[in-house]
Write a structure and sequence with these properties.
It contains 10 helices and 6 strands. By secondary structure, the protein is an alpha/beta fold. The protein folds into 2 domains: 177 residues, Rossmann fold (3-Layer(aba) Sandwich), CATH 3.40.50.360; 54 residues, no CATH class. Strands 1, 2, 3, 4, 5 and 6 form a 6-stranded mixed beta sheet that branches. Helix 2 packs parallel to helix 6 and helix 8 packs parallel to helix 10. It is globular. Bound molecules: flavin mononucleotide.
């Protein structure tokens, strides 16, 4: 009996201590973090798949810094293509307004972002976002082709809407695992930056900023070279590895000499030698 009473008393004490700790944590949250919120947008209609996993991981990074998150699946909202009559849902418009920063993840369909994400971009009501921070993630889960052109779709949108976007993130099946790790840190960085908004002073300032971002000026060949690099990184055990690497280096050297047309053959060879089909699901 005595043992049971002692155990109950101990459990009660622990429970109170836990509640007190939670109260302090919550208080700290509102006092010091200033209740910032970052919105994650899943543009893929497939919940739980690649885009969703990357957004989730990025938001985990955000949360680790003590910043609030909201996550939305565009597929859950009745998004219609733009006409003068169509309106975005109040919920999405309000979340955009409230968010201090944004993460948009979109799957790559034929070299661009999918229609759902684009329709959302066309109709969402955007007021006063100059200098809010953002991250864009493009997910080319098939051949990988189009991962940069689709990323450019997202960052062009950010550019036009005056969002101060960081860390352009092109993802294929070949670098997916790696990005699933690094996107956590991008989320953390985004959360830190979102604490102080930094509006662009004008067109010059904004253009200078965007000109410096990686991948946004990638053409077909640059994209193929990126995919080749991603494949080389994960193919060390493959029989064709050395030969493929040599092809890649030849392409690289030709590009360095300004011979882009000649380089194409070698870039494509690298990709072909190391490419593997997606697992059947
Ligand atoms: C209509 C359509 C077009 C696609 N086009 C491409 C493409 O150009 N490049 C590519 O790598 N994958 C392409 N894919 C594959 C998707 O990028 C892949 O399914 C991706 O995983 C989608 O992201 P999710 O897993 O988050 O849905 C396409 C898929 C569909 C349905």
């Amino acid at each position: 009996m005595l043992i049971i009473i002692s155990a109950l008393l101990l459990a009660h004490t622990f429970d109170n201590a836990y509640k007190l700790n939670q109260n302090i944590k919550n208080k700290n949250k509102s006092t010091f973090v200033d209740e910032k919120m970052i919105l994650g947008i899943v543009g893929s209609p497939r919940k739980g798949k690649l885009t969703d996993q990357l957004i989730t991981r990025c938001l985990e990074g955000v949360e680790s810094v003590g910043v609030e998150i909201e996550k939305v699946y565009l597929v859950d909202s009745k998004i219609q293509y733009f006409t003068k009559q169509t309106k975005c849902s109040e919920e999405l418009n309000n979340l955009w307004k409230q968010a201090d920063a944004l993460v948009i993840g979109a799957p790559v369909y034929w070299g661009g972002i999918n229609g759902l994400t684009k329709d959302f971009m066309d109709i969402v009501e955007i007021i006063d976002v100059n200098g809010k921070y953002g991250i864009g993630i493009s997910v080319a889960g098939g051949t990988g082709r189009g991962l940069c052109s689709a990323l450019q779709n997202i960052y062009r949108f950010f550019y036009h809407r005056q969002i101060r976007a960081i860390d352009p993130t092109p993802v294929s099946r070949f670098n997916f695992k790696e990005i699933l790790e690094t996107i956590y840190d991008s989320g953390r960085r985004l959360a830190e930056l979102s604490k102080e908004r930094k509006p662009f002073e004008g067109d010059k300032d904004r253009m200078e900023y965007y000109e410096k971002l990686e991948y946004l000026n990638y053409a077909f060949l640059d994209e193929m070279m990126l995919l080749a690099r991603q494949l080389i990184k994960i193919s060390k055990d493959k029989a064709a590895f050395q030969k493929a690497k040599h092809e890649y280096e030849t392409a690289e050297s030709l590009i360095g000499q300004g011979k882009r047309q000649e380089a194409i053959e070698y870039a494509v060879n690298t990709y072909r030698m190391l490419y593997f089909d997606p697992p059947k699901s």
